[in-house]
Amino acid sequence: MKLMFLGADHEVTGSCHHIEVGGKNILLDCGMEQGRDTYENKKLSISEADVDYVFLSHAHIDHSGLIPFLYKNGFKGEIFTTAATYDLCKIMLRDSAHIQEFEAQWRNKKAKRAGRDLFEPIYTMEDAEGVLQNFHECAYGEIIDVCDEIKVRFVDVGHLLGSASVELWLTENGITKKVVFSGDIGNINQPIIDDPQYVDDGDFVIMESTYGNRYHGEVPNYVGELARVIQSTFDKGGNVIIPAFAVGRTQEMLYFIRKIKEEGLVKGHRNFKVYVDSPLAIEAIRVFNENIDNCFDDEALELVQKGVDPISFKGLKVAVEAEESQAINFDNDPKIILSASGMCDAGRIRHHLKHNLWRPECTVLFVGYQALGSLGRILVDGEKQVKLFNETIKVRANIEKLEGISGHADKTGLLKWVNNFKNKPKKVFVVHGDDLVIEEFGECLRSEYGYDVYCPYSGAIYDLVTNNVIKDGGKIPIEHRDKSQNGGRSAEAFANLQTAADRLQRLVQDSKGGHNTELERLEIAINRLCDKFS
């Protein structure tokens, strides 16, 4: 009975854990790595065709995104997850496949011109469609006999519609061990969905630590802050542009905006327009409305029982086709535009930024995490001009951030979840966090709460019967990093330095054709910096 760690180990994305029990092979999640990666992930040690079961915690691509890749490479097993997660995967995995195919098409145009080998997409729409037939929908709280060796139960963890912690009872040679996989633990007091539920027993716990070294603080007045931004922007005749993740965050914003309209918190702009410009977000709204009974919290259910749609209202407009998206920017009325991607690195939001960033009467409101190096992060950090579609755009719009909105539990929430166990597990495996966060949170559990903690790297193997490490994982920086850096603080610092250098390069390129005086000032500043550190 072995547990092998493959992804989201000393990193946040690419969640994947492999368990061997009684001749069966299990995957807990099968996620795609996204954004900046620190360490090389070990590949699955068996053929994809030899995987019997996947137990999926939720639909986010960093947890589900490589399931079609399994199928492409021979997987014919069964995937167990909640009904709402299956519904979201039907749209999100198809959307991911579309992105893979589009990227391959774009790369291959360049490859053909250069005489290079063609690029193959990670998987295709056919793979995504095919693997959806392997899903089994499970109800929260139901213990399912998967086979003689395995039982499973999904517990609502309040992170995303359908998200769950996974309880596994594993039996081999007459010995049964219970493994609990936290999934992504949700923040409390989120709109629409329930707060996290808790598990109270288990031999081994695999738990996330995304915000294991920070606190969200007091719950902000989201509705009041959002109303303030809308009022001030509309009074100036501008638009409020909200880059938002299509699944989860967009629906939360609609919930708040409905409340603002209902309570008349924005004065003088009755029935103001709100555009949702993201086909994926529009599909997700439908999925939310189809899972009211299983996933909505009491407040949202009460609205439904009164005949109120929690995420819809008068003045809400949707844009599916490209022509509908383009038409939004020819509407001169003050309005709210919700569009993806949430970090502004792709998608229709970039067109809306092009049309609104240069306008001082407009506001770009960020409502989610902005990764280092993303366009969203660059704007939040105060960049005065950016390049969009090969055009330099001056940033004159008001840039704001709605603080405190997070789908992840903070340190307090994580501790509440693990401290709910009646008896301390034999081992707590800390995963799904940045390198230093995992170490800090693991040390907190160890020194302050007395847990036996292991913080594995990808490739680590653990014996669940003897409760011992079989093999430590490799702390191997990814290939394009400086191999002299030994991971940890050095790897992260070097990555930050690379991002800063990329930003400087963009600044130099954007300066082309500028005034001689400004170019000379920039040249002097760069040379002084080089002289200082050379």
Describe the structure.
The chain is of the alpha/beta class and 534 residues long. The protein folds into three domains: 2-215 and 407-471, Metallo-beta-lactamase, Chain A, CATH 3.60.15; 222-401, Rossmann fold, CATH 3.40.50.10890; 488-533. It is 35% helix and 21% strand. The protein is built from 16 helices and 23 strands. The chain has helices at residues 61-64, 67-72, 83-114, 125-131, 222-235, 249-262, 279-290, 292-295, 298-305, 322-328, 349-356, 375-380, 411-418, 435-449, 488-510, 516-533; strands at residues 2-7, 16-21, 24-30, 53-55, 78-82, 135-138, 144-147, 150-156, 164-172, 175-181, 204-208, 240-243, 273-277, 316-318, 335-339, 363-366, 385-388, 391-394, 398-401, 427-431, 453-454, 461-463, 468-471. It has an eight-stranded mixed beta sheet with strand order 6-5-4-3-2-1-22-23. Strands 7-8-9-10-11-20-21 form a seven-stranded mixed beta sheet, with helices on one face. β22 (461-463) and β23 form a beta hairpin. The termini are far apart. Residues 480-492 have low confidence and may be disordered.
